[in-house]
Description:
By secondary structure, the chain is of the alpha+beta class. The protein has helices at residues 2-21, 35-49, 89-103, and strands at 26-32, 57-59, 65-72, 75-82.
Amino acid sequence: MNAKILILYVTMSLSSLLCFSQEKFKYREEIQSTNEKVHKVETLVQQEFGLPSSPGIWTSTNPDYGLMIRTKGNTFTISAWQISDNIDIKAKIEKLMLKVKSEL
């Protein structure tokens, strides 16, 4: 009986460790400011991710991460998520958001 409990405990511990290690980066934030400040932020986003896919909207074509950035009026919205283990989008987003928050 004790051996079965020990095996169950070890199995659950290992599975929780595996699930924890597979956690991928997810980020979402919406910031409201003035139209002028949001327009300035568009320049920062272009420096980091290139030209928008359509006016005021940046999306990712990278298979390693998802990205959706939108600037409209006085609102800046960003959603980013890591898909694979090949790239760490977290550092890129954190760097961008430090610049964005200093502007807004």
